[in-house]
Amino acid sequence: MDVCGLSHANCIDFVASVPFSISSCSASGWVCDEPSQQQFPVSAKQLIDEEEKVKYRATLWALFPNRSYDICLTLNGDSDEHLSDARGTSPLIRSESTKYCFSYNTLPLGCGIRDPVSFIYDATILCRSDFLDCLLAQPKDYMFIYLSKHCLKELIARLFYQTLFPLPLSQSLGLCSLPNYRQGRYCLDLEGEEYPWLRNKKVKRLVSSGLYSVAVNRDLSNSLRTAQEYHLQRCGSTWLNDNFIEALTDMGDDKQLNVGILAVELIEESTGTAVAGCLGFGIGSVFHDFTMFTCQRTTESYGTIITKVMGAALQACGYNMWYWGDKIEYMKQYEGSYGARFLGREEFLRRWALYRDKKSKYFVGDFLRAGKGLLRSWSATLSDSNAVVRC
């Protein structure tokens, strides 16, 4: 029985007609960087090929380009089959009746590629159902991809679906880093008991005062630009550049892969001013906010209010987790009583894979827009003179 090995620059696919596993993989010669974190054995997963035949595929991820690897494959269970290489070569070693070792070379990658082990040079790989295994194998905290304007909405939606949020490294979209922290992702774990969102007396007083409401996707482009200004004022720079704002705004009108872009703003009723906001996306029953903003530093704790409003709504809607990204100092206050914690890389990816395709009871944007959250919805029927004013 032939096993077909298909080499890429930083991964190798093996396909056969019977179940098998990859029992080991080692690079030949000197390696100058951290190796793949992939755990062995790697069991081949069943797939249906273009001719509707059952095949089995196993992939080695996070490999070095232009490198030779010694790879051992093992047939699963009792089998009279024998492995041979589809290239027509015999195994280098056959140490047991069902264990076969071959040598394969990864393909070269162009010069000047940033971190070639973690570079996504072929975007079609994002369509694979086993792509999260690639994330699990990565030896570093960031991956990289080059975003072009061709099929941009679909590409960003695919990245979101696969847990990856692109951070542009220049004022054009172009090269982007993709956080995939080895420690895991910092989240509000919404699995389990309902959290006491209104336990804080000050927050409870402000929520019940009738002075504030929430607006949902009133003007996505304007909300993103408000967040952009917030970044620039606080940090002097921002990854939220004009091209990225345009792309995210376009996505707001088209839910690809069930990815819903959301801008939730806290509105001061007396002035119609947006005083804080949360911008993110929902997929199935997971949610990731990619930025928040507060327009004023006051004793009213606008940032805390919008966080509690969002958290209560997400939990009421049946979301499993709220992914926050990297941990920032202020987030410590949500540990303990509100479930904020690092989910290890393996746990995070496992739960994301399960719940991204599991529909929540309500889409959180629809829930808040219907006035079912802690605050009433800012009326969509207000006259233009009472439209939301940006801070």
UniProtKB/TrEMBL annotation:
<dbReference type="GO" id="GO:0030163">
    <property type="term" value="P:protein catabolic process"/>
</dbReference>
<dbReference type="InterPro" id="IPR004616">
    <property type="entry name" value="Leu/Phe-tRNA_Trfase"/>
</dbReference>
<dbReference type="GO" id="GO:0005737">
    <property type="term" value="C:cytoplasm"/>
</dbReference>
<dbReference type="GO" id="GO:0008914">
    <property type="term" value="F:leucyl-tRNA--protein transferase activity"/>
</dbReference>
<dbReference type="InterPro" id="IPR042203">
    <property type="entry name" value="Leu/Phe-tRNA_Trfase_C"/>
</dbReference>
<dbReference type="InterPro" id="IPR016181">
    <property type="entry name" value="Acyl_CoA_acyltransferase"/>
</dbReference>
<keyword id="KW-0012">Acyltransferase</keyword>
<keyword id="KW-0963">Cytoplasm</keyword>
<protein>
    <submittedName>
        <fullName>Leucyl/phenylalanyl-tRNA protein transferase</fullName>
    </submittedName>
</protein>
<keyword id="KW-0808">Transferase</keyword>
